[in-house]
């Protein structure tokens, strides 16, 4: 079986061994006794809490990565190798290059909201000196080029194709236009789309009365992206309510939704997504560990991916942040199998991922052909961009089986 993965954060899927090695080499403070085992324990979320707690682990290792172009390229190259080991034919990895600048005084907006939450010896203070470069020697362009170089070498070495989605981070509007610039300037070099990440769903971004007041610039940037033909995906419906999905689609022109689980809280918004053929980037393990599923305001606590499968919504299966979840793509498939998913579900999900990838049309056709051969499916035609949403939703083989259960308690 060949897979397509559309939602994974490059800085959230670094090998624990690489983090440990780099932190030791740079003399940075490691959790606990300083062992690899203690590092893994500090990074991994053991039980669901909330998104802020889930993201707090990034503060442990980002100081070791920021500003170090050699390490960033290495991480990108290792990422491709890891994807190849999981039989991934194509992957879109996302990150924000501005967060990897050396000695950056503008903290990740999620980290700014942590309010003391930490998994490192009861403290949130993990600030240390950054990498070996001096201020001014590293730019967002050089960081992006290091990632692209690592991906290119990885594709040559391991055969898996990886492309980049660049993230705007909510609360850092000074970066938005520069992210768009990078998307435009590097679209022929491996950048395929733009994203919005960060803890925007619990801010004014999700309230009707504010109506994106704080991020009017964000709306302008995403409108410009649409006009320039730059593909758009948005984190929504994870920590925030179904209304954030509606805002992502209507105000920001999202073609895909990162996570989107809480869309099932509002039937009218969910039906709009089905009608518009919005693709949901589902990450099963992280959906629980971020507290997203536990916060669902629905009578049923069944995972929304089960509803997606039954309704033939367009969705893909992804890992999100393996460094934090300590899971790989096969773990996501195993969990869904235990919930009643069959090979038919997985086949359809991977074809949907290919169809909704941000690749240029000719490369997308080649990817679908690759899946076609791998799955032994005949008489499959890539839907035309002019085909109606409903027909693209039902055109991927084979027909849906039924799934009837799936909770975090039942995961084992």
From TrEMBL:
GO-annotated cellular components: cytosol; external side of plasma membrane
Any one GO molecular-function label of the UniProt entry: metal ion binding
Recorded superkingdom: Eukaryota
Keywords, alphabetical: Hydrolase, Metal-binding, Zinc
PROSITE patterns on file: A_DEAMINASE (PS00485)
Region annotated Disordered, chain positions: 386-412
Annotated ranges, domain Adenosine deaminase: 4-373
Membrane topology per record: Peripheral membrane protein
Pfam families linked to this entry: A_deaminase
GO biological process: adenosine catabolic process; hypoxanthine salvage; inosine biosynthetic process; negative regulation of adenosine receptor signaling pathway; purine ribonucleoside monophosphate biosynthetic process
InterPro entries: A/AMP_deam_AS, A_deaminase_dom, Ado/ade_deaminase, Metal_Hydrolase
Enzyme category, top tier: hydrolase
Cellular localization per UniProt: Cell membrane
Cofactor list: Zn(2+)
EC number(s) recorded for this UniProt protein: 3.5.4.4
Biased composition, class Low complexity, residue ranges: 386-395
This protein's record includes keyword Zinc: yes
Keyword Zinc carried by entry: yes
Annotated signal peptide: none
Family the UniProt entry places it in: Belongs to the metallo-dependent hydrolases superfamily. Adenosine and AMP deaminases family.
Entry-linked PANTHER family: ADENOSINE DEAMINASE (PTHR11409:SF43)
Name of the protein in question: Adenosine deaminase
Species of origin: Homarus americanus (American lobster)
High-level lineage: Eukaryota, Metazoa, Ecdysozoa, Arthropoda, Crustacea
Gene name, Swiss-Prot/TrEMBL: Ada-L1
């Amino acid at each position: 079986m060949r897979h397509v993965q559309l939602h994974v954060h490059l800085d959230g899927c670094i090998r624990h061994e690489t983090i440990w090695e780099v932190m030791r080499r740079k003399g940075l403070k490691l959790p606990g006794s300083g062992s690899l085992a203690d590092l893994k324990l500090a990074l991994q979320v053991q039980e669901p809490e909330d998104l802020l707690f889930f993201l707090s682990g990034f503060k442990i290792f980002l100081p070791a990565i920021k500003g170090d172009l050699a390490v960033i390229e290495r991480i990108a190259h290792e990422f491709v190798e890891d994807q190849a080991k999981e039989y991934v034919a194509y992957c879109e990895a996302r990150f924000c290059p501005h967060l990897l600048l050396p000695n950056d005084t503008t903290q990740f907006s999620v980290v700014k909201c942590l309010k003391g939450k930490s998994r490192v010896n009861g403290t949130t203070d993990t600030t240390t000196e950054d990498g070996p470069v001096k201020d001014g020697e590293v730019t967002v362009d050089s960081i992006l080029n290091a990632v692209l170089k690592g991906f290119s070498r990885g594709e040559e070495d391991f055969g898996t194709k990886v492309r980049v989605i660049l993230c705007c981070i909510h609360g850092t509007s000074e970066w938005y236009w520069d992210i768009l610039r990078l998307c435009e300037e590097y679209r022929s070099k491996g950048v395929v789309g733009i994203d919005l990440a960060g803890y925007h769903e619990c801010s004014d971004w999700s309230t009707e009365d504010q109506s994106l007041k704080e991020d009017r610039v964000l709306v302008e940037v995403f409108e410009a992206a649409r006009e320039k033909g730059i593909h758009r995906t948005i984190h929504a419906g994870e920590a925030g309510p179904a209304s954030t999905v509606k805002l992502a689609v209507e105000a920001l022109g999202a073609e895909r939704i990162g996570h989107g689980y809480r869309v099932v809280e509002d039937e009218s918004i969910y039906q709009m997504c089905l009608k518009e053929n919005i693709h949901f980037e589902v990450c099963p393990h992280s959906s629980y560990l971020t507290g997203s599923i536990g916060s669902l305001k629905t009578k049923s606590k069944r995972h929304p991916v089960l509803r997606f499968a039954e309704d033939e919504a367009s969705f893909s299966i992804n890992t999100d942040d393996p460094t934090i979840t300590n899971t790989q793509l096969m773990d996501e498939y195993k969990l869904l199998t235990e919930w009643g998913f069959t090979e038919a579900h997985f086949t359809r999900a991977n074809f949907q991922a290919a169809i909704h990838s941000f690749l240029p049309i000719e490369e997308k056709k080649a990817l679908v052909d690759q899946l076609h051969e791998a799955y032994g499916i005949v008489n499959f035609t890539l839907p035309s961009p002019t085909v109606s949403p409903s027909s693209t939703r039902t055109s991927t083989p084979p027909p849906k089986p039924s799934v009837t259960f799936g909770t975090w308690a039942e995961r084992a």
